[in-house]
Design brief:
The chain is α+β, with helices and mostly antiparallel strands. The protein contains 10 helices and 9 strands. Its EC number is 2.7.1.36.
Length: 304
């Protein structure tokens, strides 16, 4: 059995907004990775049991699309997902597992080695959305999609997703970085909070007129490498999230979040659904930002 690696992902922009058709930008994060392996010992037991439950879901919903008998045989042999991707941190732990299961057991797997079209991306996203719903109750399918393709993706709408080139990293002072909130978060409760908020017309209005506007402007500026408009819109985006996404912001980070906005030394935003795990930071001076965030573990993911 060959063991292809599936890497973590980071949704730079578009958290929650992509549910309402905002733009999104997601990138692979190769620091963390996972692959399917066999082990009859205790090490893989929890993962093996989780895959067993997932297999039952696939058999019920995808019986003609996957080689369920082979999957069950492998589970019996102790197959598990050997992964360094932290769970509940917003970097695609379930997405990587879904991509790995699809890669090994899908009967009519979409082959991306010959090139990727919008049509193939759309089909993969639809399949991955249904598969990952097992873990989150509702999934856009974006996380497994990027874990499977291992390429940056620009999400223009639910039906318009394409690969995208990003500006080359530079050895400057600026950085995009992860901030560890210190505890994992759960996706489903956070998504439920968002859907409850969507029932209110005032929230839907500000989401559409402000959040989506700032989010899309950030993506346009980042892809072009325009730092000043990027940071102008990041401040608006971070401020909006502080006001409207407060339940999703880990309690430990509320003061640090507000401090960044007030001093312009960095701006924070959600990385995934929030509630815990990682938060994303953007700064023009990473060493200075680190001083203010000394109580938290940080790691750089992109330099400029």
């Amino acid at each position: 059995m060959r063991n292809p690696l599936f890497y973590a992902k980071i949704l730079l922009f578009g958290e929650y907004g992509i549910i309402e058709d905002s733009k999104g930008l997601t990138i692979p994060y190769n620091t963390y990775k996972g692959s399917l392996k066999f082990d009859q010992k205790a090490e893989g037991k929890v993962s093996n049991e989780s895959i067993d439950r997932f297999a039952e879901y696939l058999e019920k919903n995808f019986s003609e699309d996957f080689d369920i008998s082979l999957l069950n045989e492998d589970i019996e042999k102790g197959m598990y997902f050997d992964s360094t991707i932290p769970q509940g941190y917003g970097v695609g732990s379930s997405g990587a597992l879904v991509a790995a299961i699809y890669d090994r057991y899908a009967l009519n797997k979409i082959d991306t080695s010959e090139g990727i079209t919008k049509e193939s991306i759309g089909k993969l996203k639809e399949t991955f959305s249904k598969m990952e719903s097992f873990f989150h109750g509702k999934s856009s399918g974006i996380d497994p999609l990027i874990c499977y393709l291992n390429l940056p993706l620009l999400i223009n709408s639910k039906t318009d997703i394409s690969t995208v080139g990003l500006p080359e990293q530079k050895e400057g002072k600026g950085a995009i970085f992860l901030v560890n909130s210190g505890a994992p978060g759960e996706t489903a409760p956070m998504v439920q909070i968002f859907f409850d908020k969507l029932k209110h017309e005032g929230f839907r209005k500000t989401l559409k007129e402000e959040f989506i506007k700032y989010n899309n402007a950030c993506i346009d500026a980042f892809v072009k490498g325009d730092v000043n408009p990027l940071f102008a819109n990041l401040k608006k985006l971070s401020t909006w999230a502080f006001l409207h996404f407060k339940p999703m912001i880990p309690q430990r980070l509320l003061d640090a979040w507000q401090y960044g906005i007030q001093t312009n030394s960095y701006y924070l935003k959600l990385c995934g659904s929030g509630g815990g795990g990682y938060i994303l930071g953007f700064t023009k001076d990473y060493e200075n930002a680190k001083l203010h965030l000394k109580d938290f573990d940080t790691e750089v993911i992109y330099k400029f």
